[in-house]
Amino acid sequence: MTHKNIALGIDTGGTYTDAVLYDYDERIVLSKAKSVTTHEDLTIGISSVLDKIDQDILKQACLVSLSTTLATNACVENKGGKVKLILIGCYPELFERNCSKYGISSTSEFEYIDAEITIDGVINRAPDWDNFDEIIRKCEKNFDSFAVVSLWGMKNPELELSAKAHIQSIVDKPVVCGHELSTALDIIKRACSAMLNARLLPIIADFIRAVKQILGERNIDVPIFIVRSDGSIMTAEFALDKPVETLLCGPAASVLGGMYLADTEDGLLIDMGGTTSDIALIRRGAPILTPSGAVVGDFKTAVKSLQINTVGLGGDTLVTVDRYGEVHLGVRRVRPICDLATQFPEVTRSIYYTPSDNRFYYILNDNYDVNQLGELPRILYEELKVRRWMSGNTIASVIKESYLANVAIEELENLGIVLRSGLTPTDVMMVRGDYDMWDKKPAEMILQYYAKDFETTVEAYCEEIYYKVKERMFCSLARMLFEQDEDKYFSPKELDARMEQLFHNAYYKHTIESDSVLDYQIISKVPIIGVGAPIHLFLPDVAKALGTKSIINDYSPVANALGAAICKIRVTEEVTIKVGGRKYQIFTRLRSFVASSYQAALEIAQREAEAIAKEEAEKRGAVNPTVKVTINERKAGKKKEVIHMETIVTATAECEMYATI
Description:
Elements: E1 6-12, E2 16-23, E3 28-36, H1 42-52, H2 55-58, E4 63-68, H3 70-76, E5 83-88, H4 92-98, E6 110-113, E7 116-117, E8 123-125, H5 129-139, E9 145-150, H6 158-170, E10 175-177, H7 187-217, E11 224-227, E12 233-235, H8 236-241, H9 249-262, E13 267-272, E14 277-283, E15 286-287, E16 295-296, E17 299-300, E18 308-311, E19 317-321, E20 327-333, E21 335-336, H10 337-343, H11 346-353, E22 360-363, H12 375-387, E23 389-391, H13 392-398, H14 402-414, E24 418-422, H15 425-432, H16 441-453, H17 458-483, H18 497-511, E25 528-531, H19 539-545, E26 550-551, H20 559-565, E27 568-580, E28 583-587, E29 592-595, H21 598-619, E30 626-636, E31 643-656
Helix pairs in contact: 1-7, 3-7, 5-6, 9-20, 11-16, 12-14, 15-17, 16-17, 17-18, 17-19
């Protein structure tokens, strides 16, 4: 059968790579498949998943749309390229005092460049460019990319552009400017966004390069798009310049796919992947947008996105047992031990002889520039290039001091050079028979060691690990419900340790019979929509504890890839008219204007909003986008004392993805 408008949706997550073939005309999924993501070479996982879908229909695909959690996971796990952040005309004490609130743990890689810029963006004193060039020459070898942010750069980007030109004249490395990403007044948030964008450049570039390589090998020459954090899409070429806009593209795609599958106006959606679980609230048929910018892990950015809470919970979350026999879930993704042992059978032998040593590390990148590594990380890196994998004991034997050995291997982890492997919920699924992918023996040996050491059973430990996963899922969903409650009794800042303990207690009380004088329950008035491969193992019990139902169907495991396939190109541009005195100031993302009358200001604002939105949509791949304009006048006061403060003119340019063919 011949189909006309077929989209190939591909989602590369921390654990699995999914693919769907979607018919735009019939609005149905024609074929779907899953394969394991191969971090050491993404092309292997992508090629494998394409092998599993219908090959005849694949040849008819007219476009490819991508989503990925690689950027999200990199932020949660603090990975990515090394970035030098250049701050022009900024106050060092402001950044030193507040950066940690935005997720920036260290300011050691910041460079403060002296300059004077007024609040209107007027440059009173430019930087000493000769001195600037010397600074760049001294540090160019130590960084993969640069980010440049100037004070009031969103009003006048001249200094950011000049700095970019100077850097590019000295070194052939990517340079990201703050004004290219955001017009937010919050300079630390703009700096965080620019820094993350620069840090994610190699990660998204590798992903897009891998997709193009596999499509080329199959003679599939079609346009490639990638999902943005706000649920719209952009061309792959656009994403290479602004990868930070893919920050929550995987979760955004899962929300859209989950909404499509659930067919409900209201719901709480959770996408459980390998590294993270992403939670979003759907009200009146639409996901809620964040008013202040995407938050991923500890990072607060100015990236427009859906309101998504990302928590460190997935099938590949690290499971540890402390010296008292208590189970703990980490937040970092590790490779399941059963998976690693399949590739390296010697791992099983190592566990057999020393089951207490169940930390393993294997190399992902053979071609890293060792000049950018410290002495001890360099020693471990060279050793791993030969051995391919090492246990915790082996690392300690190479680096004699255990503390220094841990610091060195963690640096290699953070740079994405090596990946840790250990016990995970996925391994426990193997032991329990809920999942069948690899030999379960390595995980069984680790659990048997703990069971013997603490005089219990393997089954009891498996049950406890599942309980911990459900408990964290319950608490995360409860937190989202409290934060998004329409009565606004609680804000995220008010959900302190005592509220967190309340969530834990509520789930615990649901799982036991008690004669306590007090009982309480957290009730969700909306259903819980579950997507992701392992979600069916945990969500039904969690939804029951929340007093509601779960919605899971056959396509839930590939909802991300489906969401990628059904996206639209959509750009929203705001222009502000400030009212004051006899003149009206018009501020756009690119320039500012002054008008002598309100009507003239309104005409300029509408013209500029439409033009910028349309131009941006076309940059992202749109063809003849439709543009709609809304006007919102903001006033203050009552009755005769009402004052017109400002007007927000919003233009939205939109285009169906298949219309670009």
